[in-house]
């Protein structure tokens, strides 16, 4: 099982070594993807396959077989889907490395400070917007009162 992050070149080399022909393109069967990248890859693939998902059938993956005992369905990944699985593998590796890194902790603190600053700026902007709304409301109410007074004065004459 692959336990380190992969460069694009290394990923392509693995794909070229592992791929077999399905129809007119090379692909890697899904079970082999799990053997290469572990169960996390299986969960990722299952979550992201299907209609309106990240992995697009026909471009990233396909399947062969009828689903019968004699012809079970085998899902397989084309190079495009393989690269997406590698990307997720690298992401998971980076998350774990970030959590253990002093630089990762430093970066997290910078992001906390940034988010607090943005929250303050948003709260200030909301307060200004609310003050403007209140000012407009007060002006509308004053205009209505003035109009009502004029109407009352005209009725009295």
Structure report:
The structure is a single chain. Helix 1 (8-18) packs across helix 4, helix 2 (30-37) packs across helix 3 and helix 4 (79-100) crosses helix 5 (102-156). Helices cover 68% and strands 10% of the residues. With 157 residues, the protein is an alpha+beta fold. A 4-stranded antiparallel β-sheet has the order 1-2-4-3. The chain has helices spanning 8-18, 30-37, 39-48, 79-100, 102-156, and strands at 20-22, 25-29, 61-64, 74-77.
Please tally the helical runs, counting DSSP H or I stretches of 4 or more residues: 5
Share of helix, binned: 55-70%
Strand line-up of the largest beta sheet = 1-2-4-3
Number of domains: 2
Poorly predicted runs: none
Largest sheet: 4 strands, antiparallel
Determine the strand fraction and express it as a percent band.
5-15%
The rough form would be described as elongated
Which H/E pattern describes the elements?
A: HEEHHEEHH
Rg from Cα = 30 Å
Overall number of strands: 4
Q: Calculate the terminal CA-CA distance, rounded to whole Å.
A: 95 Å
- Overall pLDDT metric: 92
- Summing up helix and strand content along with how strands pair, one would put the structural category as alpha+beta
């Amino acid at each position: 099982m692959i336990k380190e992050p992969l460069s694009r070149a290394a990923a392509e080399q693995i794909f070229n070594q592992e791929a077999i022909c399905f129809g007119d393109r090379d692909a890697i069967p899904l079970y082999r993807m799990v053997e290469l990248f572990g169960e996390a890859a299986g969960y990722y693939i299952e979550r992201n396959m299907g209609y309106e998902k990240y992995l697009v059938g026909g471009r990233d993956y396909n399947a062969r077989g009828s689903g019968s005992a004699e012809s079970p369905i085998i899902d397989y990944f084309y190079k495009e889907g393989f690269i997406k699985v590698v990307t997720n593998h690298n992401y998971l590796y980076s998350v774990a490395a970030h959590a253990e890194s002093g630089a990762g902790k430093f970066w997290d603190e910078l992001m906390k400070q940034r988010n607090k600053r943005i929250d303050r700026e948003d709260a200030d902007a909301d307060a200004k917007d609310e003050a403007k709304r209140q000012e407009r409301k007060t002006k509308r109410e004053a205009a209505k009162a003035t109009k009502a007074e004029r109407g009352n004065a005209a009725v009295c004459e």
